[in-house]
Amino acid sequence: MNLFPRRRRAHVRFDYTRGSLGWGLARLALPSCGEQIAWNLDAVVELYWVGRLGPEYLAAVALCFMVSFFLRAIPLGFRIAGGALVAQRIGAGDDRGAALAAGQSILLTLAYTGVFAVLGYLLSPWMIALMTTDPLVRELGTAYFRMSFVFFVFYDGIATLAHVLRGAGEPGYSLVGMVASAGVATIIMPFCVFGWGQVPGMGIAGAPFAVGIGRIVGTAIVMSFLFTGRSRLKLSLGDLRLDRPLSRRILVLGWPAAAQNLLERGSNLILVRILSLFGPVPVAAFGVTNRITNVSRMPAFGVQAALRTLVGQNLGAGQPARAVQAVRLSMWVTAFFMGTTALGLFHFAPQVVLFFGLTGEGAEVGALCLRILTVGLLFESARRVLAGAFHGAANTKPPMIVEGLVRWGVEIPIGYLAAVVLGLGAAGVWWSITGGQILAGAALFGWFFWWSAREGLRTQPAALQSPVE
After folding, report:
1. Looking at the whole model, is its pTM more than 0.85?
2. Beta carbons within 8 Å of 402's beta carbon, 6+ residues apart
3. Exposure string (b/e) for 240-253, b if CB count within 10 Å is 16 or more?
4. Contact indicator for 28, 169 with CB cutoff of 8 Å
5. CA-based end-to-end distance of the chain
6. Helix H segments across 195-297?
7. Most confident residue range from 56-65, 85-94, 327-336
8. Which residue, 176, 170, 256, 185, is CA-closest to 216?
9. Is 373 in contact with 430 (CB distance < 8 Å)?
10. What is the C-alpha separation between 63 and 53, in angstroms, rounded?
11. What are the Cα distances from residue 409, in Å, to 165, 182, 267, 274?
């Protein structure tokens, strides 16, 4: 008999439907921002080490990243829809329904990534041939692609787990997994690329190998939180069995978000293909600066993730006015942080691109590219935050419509016209991207506040209807 039983500390969960919005935003955004930094840290480390191999290696990584990024657009729709359902059901007090929604989101992601891991590995030479005619870049790209597809399931698997945890208002658990993933990849990457002692390096294939090992470690850690009851989402194997009505609902809610990302990433593929007409240096410069701007947007991604949860949970609790207040606060926070970041990147552009291995002509071209892209950084960040507000409200079509019109109606034709017809070269493509970011940010800003004032934010009945009878 235990004469001195240990008292279990009650786990107090924060209620995002009450109290200070600023504190709630900070509790969600800071871990989410840290998670996004960790998610992209290994990509930055990858650029650093691959950049030591030469510009053709950077060009191959840039092309492969754009193609794999495109292929991962569909599961992003699954996890955005799944995260919205989880958030709204948590707000409504339906923890069991939230767990089932999370399980179906994970199941759909596994099905998609498993199929495309096999197809991608087999079709790697053909895919890189679509992007470039340079024989060395094609050879390097094939090696990089094939190693990436070996770990394709884990790249998106950990991201899906992170989305459902953020929807539940528990980004700290996914942060632990992401930090572990990035830490492992960062430590082993130079050894994987260049070798260690008598162990030969894997060259360009060593970079995705290191990232993949890190993702496996991170995924295992996050899964342990979900399946051991430490998270509010107490998942069981039963939640991973197909629930047709709920999976269909995730597909219905998720297809506009998936289409939005397909439109965005598909346009990037075409713009990079136009850049490849001017040689590997502009492609390498864009590959480096595009990842730099992605990392610099981490505060905005953190706010976006937090806003999805705040809007979803407050709509689930029947508080639309509080959801709108959360959007306004998020926009002010984004304006402050991203405006400051853009000014810093513009000023220090030459030093930043030099750090990532762009030297000589590449450094000059990269600095120009980075300065052009920072002009639209604030608007692009605002657009993504507002897209998070729409996603949290389970209204995924407006971001898709704006994305399609701006990307395919403005950026691609103007980019080709400026770069090829008017002879501005690579700078014409970069200016078309910046112009599209400004236009898309302004358009979605106007749409959201017109929609919320005209119709009012309201919980989507299809989103909240519980599959648990």
Report:
1. no
2. 383, 440, 443, 444, 447
3. eeebeebbebbeeb
4. yes
5. 42
6. 206-227, 244-275, 280-296
7. 327-336
8. 185
9. yes
10. 16
11. 36, 37, 10, 16
Angle, to 10 degrees, between the axis of helix 320-347 and the axis of helix 298-316? 180
Residue identified by tokens 């950077």 is: 58
Q: Is 10 a residue whose pLDDT tops 50?
A: no
Are the beta carbons of 15 and 315 closer than 8 angstroms?
Answer: no
Which alpha helices (DSSP H) does 276-376 contain, by range?
Answer: 280-296, 298-316, 320-347, 349-355, 361-375
Q: Cα 402 from chain centroid?
A: 18
Is 271 in contact with 411 (CB distance < 8 Å)? yes
In Å, the largest CA–CA distance within the chain is 86
Tell me the two tokens of residue 98: 């939230």
Distance CA 443, CA 451 (A): 12
Whole-number Cα distances in Å, 242 to 109, 129, 404, 462? 12, 38, 32, 19
pLDDT category, 156, cuts 50, 70, 90? Answer: confident
d(CA 214, CA 217): 5
